[in-house]
Amino acid sequence: MEYRELGPGIKVSCLALGGGVFGRDCGKEETFAVIDAASDLGINFIDTADIYSRGLSEEWVGAAVRGNRERWVIATKAGVAGGEPRGKTGRRDSILRRAEESLKRLQTGTIDLYQVHHFDPETPLEETLEALDLLVKQGEVRSVGASNYSGEQLRSSLQIAQARGLTPFSTTQLQYNLFKRDCEKDQLPFCASEQVRALVYGALGRGVLTGKYDPGKDMPAGTRAFSSAAIRSDLAPSVLKAVEGLTAFAEERNQTVGCLALAWALRRKEVAALIMGVRSAGQLKANVAAVSWKLSDSDLSAIDQRVGELQNYRSFFSYGG
Q1: Residue 321 — pLDDT band, cuts 50, 70, 90?
Q2: Among 68, 42, 30, 21, which Cα is nearest to 273's?
Q3: CA distances from 80 to 26, 66, 133, 147, 166 (A)
Q4: 25 or 234: whose pLDDT is higher?
Q5: How far are the Cα atoms of 10, 74, 118, 291 from residue 254, in angstroms, in the given order?
Q6: What angle do CA 108, 109, 113 make, to 5 degrees?
Q7: Residue 317, CA distances (Å) to 97, 188, 246 in order
């Protein structure tokens, strides 16, 4: 396993467990099994959110790491309306209250990384940042981060934090994969210039970049595309054809297309970790092979040729984390 800096004094495995599947696609026993398998593979980072399965994800993560808490870096998020007025989730009272609730569910005294899940346009950034800074000063949070912020929103946040002496965002969570690269023009340059670390979700494109969907064939039973007409309508033949080419490229090198997608995202120095929503230990073990695959410049050129004009495909691959 490879470890990268997340924030001051915090190093994390470059692959992280995504808690969005816990309580939704994974039962309690499956969740515990995945976390145990991750530990055995050297993974020490779990990212969840208070909104995932209405808090159940946090509860199960807390129970799974109890007794071995010091081994784990735990990140969670608040800011998606959950029983609160929409557009008020960045308010001081909301952030402080929801942090306390997350601490209880996670059964911990400190959250290693506390993130604002989405930008709140109705609350001044100053108020949001002051609330986060208070959590750090109280010792309830070690570092703070943003999620789904634009480059301009990140820049404004940093300027306010510097001007007021507040704790700045040390991370930003964003979607990034072979078919969606918008952040290369916006958030990633900000990360490089300001030493903010990127946490990537969606590197496998909701499973499309595992090669499970074949051109001209029915969707496999049990997959999201099988049960969702909306997802099936987004799987254009051009997308599946491109994945077919990427699969052939990976297989020629005795790798899977899923590992190719992960290795491609990991090549960026701005990226601290890829957040993976795996449902089994087997899926997790298959993904770990990506860590040691270092793509050459000629590899990257060949990959771009296979993706072609689909770089920044804006339908299926555009969703919030």
Answers
A1: low
A2: 42
A3: 22, 26, 20, 11, 23
A4: 25
A5: 34, 34, 39, 15
A6: 80
A7: 33, 18, 17
Tell if the pTM clears 0.70, that is, is over it.
Answer: yes
> Is 87 within 8 Å of 121 (Cβ atoms)?
yes
Q: Which two tokens stand for residue 203?
A: 């590197």
In this predicted model, what pLDDT tens digit does every residue of 63-92 receive, in sequence order?
A: 999 999 999 999 999 977 655 655 678 999
Other CB atoms within a 10 A radius of the CB of residue 173 amount to: 26
Q: 31 near 22, Cβ under 8 Å?
A: yes
pLDDT tens digits, 139-166: 999 999 999 999 999 999 999 999 999 9
Per the CB < 8 A criterion, the answer to whether 308 and 200 are in contact is no
- Tokens 């911990």, residue located: 108
Please give the pLDDT value at position 167: 98
Taking the domains of the chain in order of start, what are their residue ranges? 3-206+264-292
Determine whether 176 is an active site residue: no
Q: Which two tokens stand for residue 82?
A: 């959950």
Selected catalytic residue, list 3, 52, 149, 213: 52
What pLDDT, on the 0 to 100 scale, is given for residue 214? 76
Report the C-alpha gap between 109 and 280 in whole angstroms.
29
The CATH superfamily label for domain 3-206+264-292 reads NADP-dependent oxidoreductase domain (3.20.20.100)
